[in-house]
């Protein structure tokens, strides 16, 4: 230590960067105070304005969705009452035949309108089911399922038609509304049965609370059934009981119709309440569960058939009621007058009833003549019908949206509960209002709601657009109120009790339709009852059903595969989870798997910052893990390719500069997310591995980041093999071998080494995985970042690709490619048959290199799709990655992507039957869509050439042949160059042509505008161009955050020839080049000087040459080595010698003394507090690491991990040993490190008896003796020295694992741990079988090269031939357009269009409209997803975690540097974190010795007010003499304000009881002796006036630490060193011997 009264600290304990920091914090002069602040990093968080609108929209969604649902249901029911009212018999007496006939005709049309109203939801169900059948394949269905399932639907259709068509026209609207909830009577009894079975079959081990809950639900079910029956009785009592309301036993046909109508209608909803079979007797049992499960398995097939059947039943029942049952209720003479037989139809002997039926049907045609009033009334009824069906669908739609966005309780259940009470109260009020008038028939619903004036021109409209209210007496208001209350208490109250589950939703966000509802869509006009009874209650039954079904299919497929030798068509393994049940907490285990290679500092910082954000997000959720539905566990695995490199002398392996860069940037990224976290990161745990090395970092919030350093000499490199590496490690070793996780809980997030994302993006992808168990992969929106025209081009290209192409693939079928830069994969999908194992296949054919190695991400997705897994796209999951900014790099990237994309798409198209068979999301319609896209892509170059040709013709007035020739010549020249020149030349020419053709495209713009101006505006070409621009513009507007990409579309348009001609030609003609092409660095060649010197030496060894004529003045032999001469005798001669060895040896001289070389520092770019240099810091690191490790592998004990680490050697100790061993010694291997560590532990046990301190920075005698002893004992090593079981085979293998890469690596410190035997065997097996470095076989390489060229020639030949044929066809049609043309007459102008071009325009238009429609659907689902995940809390982590500003980071860095300088005055080894469990108080943060200046003495005063000592402890394995002491920080009070030292008594700190281990046992650890010094000097100390000991420190109890502590007494003694302030510490060991020269 150095400071007032302290000796300077020994240099052994000061890092090299300490001096550098001291220089960096020198005062800056006033004339150099100007600064430059770096630009802020993009955090890409949600802006405040956007966040405000998201919160506002979320809050509004409660009112909007709930209000629209309520309004839709109310209007739908009101319109239903109006329509059935128009179908009632005419209640007024009339002798006017015209009026009677008009009523009969209107009534007949009312029946038809009601029929269509009943058919509308069934037709919608048929259409939706047909779509799902076509696009999403279902399994086969048994005929018994159709029979028994169709029976209940058949009865429901009969009951619904009876209730709506036969009964409701006769009922009072209030009674009708109160009766409708009674359709839950059958579900009520099924519910009672289910709850009864739940109580009677419950085991005796159930908890009392569970038993009470079962009985409570049974009581509610019984009460609901009783109320349903009571409501049925009371409603029927009121049907036709006027004036005696209690005469309900009166025989009435309407009573019977209503009874059967309600019972039969309620049969449809039994599925939602059944939980077991119905056992009536021993021999009679209804397999209700089996039927329900089969219906669920084939929901859309059966729904299509059932809806078609119900349509036929409804039509039949309507005509039965309309013609037969109601034939005597018509009042017109047209129907009632008897006519002679046969006069109507000419037939003889026709019964009168048949004639009457024919006359009723004829009312729908002319009805005896037309009437304007009748026509207007029927027209208004059609408007009511349209309103009814639209509001019913709107109610269902917004109800579903409410469930999707997790606002079911507020916006679904609550509005539905209000529909019946609201309408019943309104109807009762309307009836009371009508009863107040003398002529109630003159008062209608229109007048009541104030719309009578609107329809004043239509006579009798109020009679039809009205509700059928029974008019009470004027004093019957109380009765009407009582009727409503009793009716609600019975029927409506029973329905509320039946559907109590609606108040406790259990679904996930964005749940599928079949999970939310039992029946697809909705059925019938009773919209509120349908939505309440059809909302699925038992989601777990649905899960179990699907699990069982797919397990059976898997078993059948396995048996089939065993019988067949062809496993190519094996069906995928079935997934376990179909809906996530809240009863069992589902915690996803997320593995972030990143591949790195040669990323720049900015790119590495970007991905590391993203990882730190995710770490912070997960850490903030950990306290609420049991209640947070979005909680997840995660760990990071970074696969670092080519992490090792050879030293210049090729003798050792060391880590390259990119690994150093990564280690430096980890704390930088931590500080960017949360300021200060980077300074306290623990040092990593280091593992030597069979593939290189592994660093396990503990992130700030306790998660684990594992960096796998791959040595390409030991394991196969490249991205695909890194992916195989982490897939097998996570899914093979951790999951299958160690059983660390359940397979269904594992998800892998594949990342590139430069991606940037927010935690919300990960959660959105997880939502996709949770929503649908068939989703094997999910990708998000990739945003290219960078600057320059090449990046601008890519921004629009990426935008259009995601906006239109990926959304269309998502909606129509499956996304074909999930980019590896940011995609999530399901663990179950990757371990499926023909996926992960096939992904490890080594390329052996030319097509394999193109399809597998050039586009590994797309090939993996192809394997998943062909095995039946779905791939989805989430537009709200944003990630950002660096795009190529250089034209050459961009072309090389697309040179890999283009052929690989085509190869993988062709793989699916050529094997379409297998894809359609295995994948229920891939249909032949989707295959056709992809075929069309592929055709348009292949013919793209010829199409662009024709566009350029048209521009030449219009602008330059060239003929068609000349324009075509000028357009083709550059393309043909470029094709020839691509076959004959190097890739660099091709790219250079492509760049030049890109610029030229960009100018040509400006001419195309002029041509298009000119064509639109001269031709008819609505010509096909003009319409297509207008539509194209409009759709792209509208698409951009619908993506407001990405709207600026539309500006880049201008550049994209100008570069269309480059993208569709030259880039495609370059990609295909260079298909034989399978190198990576991007991020490749040139191999470092030898030093030029060394090369020149070597060349000279080589030449000097050759015999000289002599071209001398005549004599020579040079006396060397003519054949001397290195001698060259030429000349003409003695007249002219030139001679030179390049022999580097001189002819004489110079006189040796004493070399100048070399300055001492400082060892290179191992430090990151920011200063971190070391945490492994004392035992307390180590223990803190061990605890954090063990806590993170036990999450990785189940069954591990944290204490065991801590014990193992406590016996391991640290990196700093390894470096000290390596430096003490001296030069010329062999490198330390893993095996040797084990032996040294064992010997150190044995020596440490002996060294506790005697300590010999070092007295200088050089190696002391004791250190040399220690080194010699260690080397001597290595030879006598035996297995008994180890604390673990290591066999000899492993020892021999570890002898070859040199640790030079650690000694010269980038880490400050870290504990060196070893892999357990199981993991080491796993890596050895994996490397040997799949990942062994590829051995270059020249013959095989030549064969592949030849095959690649052949493949290139075949593919390009077919490609160019197809374009040539397309070009010739169009050109020929242009020349013969007068003979073969499609003629349009637009605005009187004749327009001739090329038929092929017109067909192509129509094709492109269809494709564009399909993509645009799919984009609209996907945008809506994305908006719902965002609403579902948005909370009303303002500080929601889903909006992103903002980076710390660079200015704040710089300020904190300066603070840390000033702290480091202050520590120069008081610093000992091993400053660690304080452990609260020691009971030693809270020492000042970060420093062992904390000095506080007295403020009134100024900055330059070197004296201090207080000195605090932080607790610490020594490491028993440390061989250094006096290690850290465990000190108690003692508060001190100022005795003298003029900078006096402090005095106190030890009695104040004496423990109160001996059993209180948290009280320190005081002993005199430090005694400060007083001395005289110059008080006026700034370096002097003013002594205390008492002349006694100033202060005492308490030593912690030895029992608090499971380590032996070294004790020392420290005295202050005078010193002649002026830097020490005139004093120094003198240490005294336990035996009293003073060691005055040793610092603490």
Q: Could you characterize what this model shows?
A:
The structure is a single chain. With 1640 residues, the chain is an alpha/beta fold. The chain contains 50 helices and 28 strands. The strands form eight sheets. The protein has an eleven-stranded mixed beta sheet, sandwiched between helices. It has a four-stranded mixed beta sheet with strand order 24-26-27-28, with no helix packed on it. The protein has a three-stranded mixed beta sheet with strand order 15-16-17, with no helix packed on it. Strand 26 and strand 27 (1623-1628) form a beta hairpin. The N terminus and C terminus are likely disordered.
Q: In total, how many beta strands?
A: 28
Spans where pLDDT lies below 50 across 5 or more residues: 1-25, 240-251, 343-347, 565-583, 1140-1173, 1248-1259, 1272-1283, 1464-1615, 1617-1640
Q: Globular, elongated, flat, extended or rod-shaped: what is the shape?
A: globular
Oligomer: single chain
Strand content: 5-15%
Question: Major sheet: size, sense and barrel closure?
Answer: 11 strands, mixed
- Rg result: 44 Å
User: On the 0-100 scale, what is the average pLDDT?
Assistant: 75
Task: Give the terminus-to-terminus CA distance.
Answer: 7 Å
Supply the number of helical segments. 50
Q: How do the strands of the widest beta sheet line up side by side?
A: 11-14-12-13-10-3-4-9-8-7-18
Structural class: alpha/beta
Helix content: 40-55%
């Amino acid at each position: 230590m150095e400071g007032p009264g302290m000796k300077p600290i020994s240099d052994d304990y000061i890092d090299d960067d300490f001096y550098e920091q001291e220089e960096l914090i020198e005062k800056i002069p006033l004339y150099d105070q100007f600064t430059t602040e770096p630009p802020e990093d993009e955090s890409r968080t949600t802006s405040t304005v956007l966040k405000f609108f998201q919160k506002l929209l979320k809050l509004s969604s409660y009112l909007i969705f709930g209000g629209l649902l309520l309004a839709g249901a109310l209007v739908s029911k009101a319109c239903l009452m109006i329509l059935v009212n128009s179908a009632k018999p005419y209640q007024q007496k009339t002798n006017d035949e015209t009026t009677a006939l008009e009523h009969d005709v209107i009534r007949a049309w009312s029946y038809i309108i009601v029929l269509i109203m009943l058919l509308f939801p069934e037709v919608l169900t048929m259409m939706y089911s047909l779509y799902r059948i076509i696009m999403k394949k279902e399994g086969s269905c048994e005929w018994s399922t159709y029979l028994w399932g169709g029976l209940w639907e058949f009865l429901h259709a009969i009951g619904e038609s009876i209730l709506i068509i036969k009964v409701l026209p006769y009922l009072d609207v209030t009674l009708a509304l109160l009766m409708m909830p009674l359709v839950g009577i059958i579900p009520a009894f099924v519910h009672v049965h289910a709850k009864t079975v739940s109580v009677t079959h419950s085991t005796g081990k159930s908890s009392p609370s569970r038993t009470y809950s079962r009985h409570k639900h049974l009581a509610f079910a019984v009460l609901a059934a009783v109320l349903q029956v009571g409501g049925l009785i009371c409603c029927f009592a009121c049907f036709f009981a006027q004036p005696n309301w209690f005469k309900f036993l009166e025989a009435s046909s309407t009573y019977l119709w209503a009874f059967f109508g309600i019972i039969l209608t309620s049969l449809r909803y039994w599925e939602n309440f059944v939980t077991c079979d119905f056992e009536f007797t021993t021999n009679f049992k209804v397999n209700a569960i089996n039927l329900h499960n089969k219906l669920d398995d084939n929901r859309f097939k059966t729904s299509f058939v059932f809806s078609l059947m119900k349509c036929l039943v409804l039509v039949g029942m309507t005509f039965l009621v309309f013609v037969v049952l109601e034939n005597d209720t018509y009042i017109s003479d047209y129907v009632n007058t008897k006519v002679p037989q046969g006069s109507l139809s000419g037939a003889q002997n026709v019964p009168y009833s048949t004639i009457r039926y024919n006359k009723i049907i004829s009312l729908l045609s002319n009805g005896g003549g037309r009437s304007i009033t009748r026509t207007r009334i029927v027209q208004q009824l059609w408007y009511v019908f349209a309103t009814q069906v639209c509001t019913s669908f709107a109610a269902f739609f917004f109800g579903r949206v409410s469930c999707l966005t997790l606002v079911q309780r507020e916006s679904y259940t609550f509005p539905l509960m209000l529909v019946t009470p609201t309408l019943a109260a309104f109807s009762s009020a309307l009836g009371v209002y009508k009863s107040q008038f003398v002529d109630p028939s003159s008062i209608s619903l229109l007048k009541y709601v104030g719309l009578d004036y609107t329809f004043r021109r239509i006579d009798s409209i109020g009679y039809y657009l009205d509700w059928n209210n029974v008019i009470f007496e004027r004093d019957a208001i109380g009765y009407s109120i009582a009727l409503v209350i009793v009716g609600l208490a019975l029927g409506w109250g029973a329905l509320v009790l039946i559907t109590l589950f609606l108040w406790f939703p259990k679904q996930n966000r964005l749940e599928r339709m079949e999970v939310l509802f039992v029946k697809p869509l909705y059925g019938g006009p009773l919209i509120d009852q349908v939505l309440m009874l059809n909302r699925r209650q038992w989601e777990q039954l649905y899960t179990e059903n699907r699990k069982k079904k797919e397990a059976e299919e898997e078993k059948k497929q396995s048996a089939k595969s065993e019988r067949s030798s062809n496993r190519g068509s094996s069906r995928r393994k079935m997934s376990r989870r179909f809906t996530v049940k809240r009863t069992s907490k589902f915690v996803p285990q997320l593995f972030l798997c990143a591949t790195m290679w040669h990323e720049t500092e900015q790119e590495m910082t970007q991905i590391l910052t993203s990882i730190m954000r995710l770490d912070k997000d997960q850490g903030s959720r950990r306290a609420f893990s049991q209640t947070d539905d979005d909680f997840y566990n995660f760990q990071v695995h970074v696969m670092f390719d080519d992490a090792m490199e050879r030293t210049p002398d090729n003798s050792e392996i060391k880590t390259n500069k990119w690994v150093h860069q990564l280690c430096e940037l980890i704390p930088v990224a931590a500080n960017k997310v949360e300021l200060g976290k980077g300074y306290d990161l623990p040092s990593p745990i280091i593992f030597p591995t069979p593939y290189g090395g592994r660093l396990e970092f503990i992130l700030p919030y306790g998660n684990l980041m594992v960096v796998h350093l791959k040595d390409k000499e030991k394991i196969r490199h490249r991205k695909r093999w890194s992916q195989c590496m982490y897939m097998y490690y996570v899914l093979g070793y951790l999951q299958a071998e160690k059983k660390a996780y359940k397979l269904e809980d594992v998800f892998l997030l594949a990342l590139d080494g430069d991606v940037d994302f927010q935690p919300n993006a990960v959660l959105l992808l997880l939502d996709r995985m949770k929503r649908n168990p068939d989703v094997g992969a999910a990708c998000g929106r990739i945003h290219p970042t960078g600057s320059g025209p090449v990046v601008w081009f890519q921004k629009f290209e990426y935008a259009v690709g995601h906006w239109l192409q990926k959304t269309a693939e998502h909606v129509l079928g499956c996304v074909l490619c999930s980019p590896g830069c940011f995609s999530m994969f399901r663990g179950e999908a990757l371990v499926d048959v023909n996926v992960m194992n096939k992904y490890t296949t080594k390329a052996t054919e030319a097509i394999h290199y193109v399809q597998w190695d050039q586009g590994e991400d797309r090939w993996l997705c192809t394997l998943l799709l062909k095995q039946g897994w779905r791939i989805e796209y989430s537009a709200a999951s944003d990630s950002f990655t660096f795009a190529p900014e250089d034209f050459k790099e961009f072309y090389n990237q697309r040179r890999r992507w283009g052929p690989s994309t085509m190869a993988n798409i062709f793989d699916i198209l050529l094997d379409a039957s297998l894809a359609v068979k295995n994948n229920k999301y891939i249909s032949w319609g989707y295959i056709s869509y992809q075929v069309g896209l592929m055709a348009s892509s292949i013919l793209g170059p010829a199409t662009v050439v024709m566009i350029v040709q048209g521009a030449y013709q219009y602008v330059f007035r060239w003929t068609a042949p000349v324009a075509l020739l000028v357009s083709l010549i550059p393309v043909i020249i470029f094709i020839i160059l691509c076959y004959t020149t190097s890739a660099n030349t091709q790219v250079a020419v492509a760049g030049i042509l890109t610029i030229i053709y960009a100018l040509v495209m400006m001419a195309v713009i002029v041509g298009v505008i000119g064509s639109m101006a001269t031709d008819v505006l609505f010509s096909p070409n003009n319409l297509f161009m207008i539509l194209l621009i409009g759709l792209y513009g509208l698409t951009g507007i619908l993506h407001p955050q990405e709207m600026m990409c539309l500006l880049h579309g201008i550049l994209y348009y100008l570069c269309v020839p480059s993208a569709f001609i030259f880039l495609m030609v370059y990609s295909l003609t260079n298909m034989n080049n399978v190198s990576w092409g991007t991020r490749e660095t040139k191999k470092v060649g030898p030093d030029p000087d060394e090369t020149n010197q070597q060349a000279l030496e080589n030449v000097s060894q050759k015999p000289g040459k002599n071209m001398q004529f005549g004599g020579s003045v040079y006396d060397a032999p003519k054949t001397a080595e290195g001698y060259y001469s030429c000349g003409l005798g003695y007249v002219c001669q030139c001679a030179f010698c390049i022999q580097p060895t001189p002819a004489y040896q110079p006189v040796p001289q004493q070399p100048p003394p070399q300055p001492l070389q400082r060892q290179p520092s191992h430090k990151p770019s920011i200063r971190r507090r070391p945490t492994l240099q004392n035992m307390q810091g180590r223990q803190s690191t061990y605890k954090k690491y063990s806590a993170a490790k036990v999450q990785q592998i189940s069954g591990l004990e944290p204490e065991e991990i801590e014990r193992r680490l406590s016996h391991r050697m640290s990196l700093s100790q390894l470096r000290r040993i390596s430096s003490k061993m001296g030069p010329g010694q062999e490198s330390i291997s893993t095996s040797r490190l084990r032996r040294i560590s064992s010997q150190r532990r044995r020596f440490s046990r002996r060294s506790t008896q005697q300590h010999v301190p070092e007295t200088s920075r050089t190696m002391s005698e004791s250190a040399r003796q220690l080194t010699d002893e260690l080397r001597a004992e290595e030879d006598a090593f035996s297995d008994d020295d180890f604390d673990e079981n290591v066999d000899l085979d492993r020892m021999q293998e570890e002898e070859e694992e040199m640790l030079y890469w650690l000694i010269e690596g980038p880490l400050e410190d870290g504990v060196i741990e070893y892999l357990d035997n199981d993991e080491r065997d796993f890596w050895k097996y994996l490397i040997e079988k799949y990942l062994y470095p590829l051995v270059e076989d020249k013959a095989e390489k030549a064969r592949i090269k030849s095959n690649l060229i052949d493949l290139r020639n075949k593919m390009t030949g077919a490609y160019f031939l197809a374009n040539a044929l397309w070009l010739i066809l169009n050109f020929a049609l242009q020349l013969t357009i007068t003979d073969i043309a499609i003629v349009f007459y637009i605005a009187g102008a004749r327009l001739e269009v090329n038929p092929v071009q017109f067909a192509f325009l129509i094709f492109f238009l269809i494709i564009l409209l399909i993509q645009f429609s799919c984009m609209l659907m996907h945008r809506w689902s994305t908006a719902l997803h965002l609403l579902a995940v948005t909370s009303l809390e303002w500080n929601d982590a889903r909006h992103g975690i903002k980076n710390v500003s660079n200015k704040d980071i710089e300020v904190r860095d300066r603070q840390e540097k000033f702290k480091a300088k202050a520590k120069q005055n008081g610093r000992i080894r091993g400053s660690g974190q304080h452990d609260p469990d020691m009971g030693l108080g809270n020492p000042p943060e970060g420093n062992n010795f904390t000095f506080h200046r007295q403020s009134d003495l100024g900055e330059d005063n070197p004296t201090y007010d207080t000195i605090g000592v932080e607790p610490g402890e020594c490491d028993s394995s440390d061989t250094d003499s006096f290690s850290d002491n465990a000190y108690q920080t003692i508060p001190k009070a100022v005795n003298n304000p003029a900078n006096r030292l402090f005095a106190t008594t030890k009695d104040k700190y004496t423990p109160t009881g001996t059993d209180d281990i948290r009280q320190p046992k005081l002993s005199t650890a430090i005694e400060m002796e007083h001395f005289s010094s110059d008080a006026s000097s700034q370096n002097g100390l003013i002594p205390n006036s008492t002349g006694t000991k100033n202060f005492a420190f308490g030593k912690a109890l030895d029992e608090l630490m499971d380590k032996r502590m070294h004790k020392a007494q420290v005295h202050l003694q005078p010193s002649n060193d002026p830097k020490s302030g005139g004093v120094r510490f003198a240490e005294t060991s336990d035996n009293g011997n003073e060691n005055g020269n040793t610092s603490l």
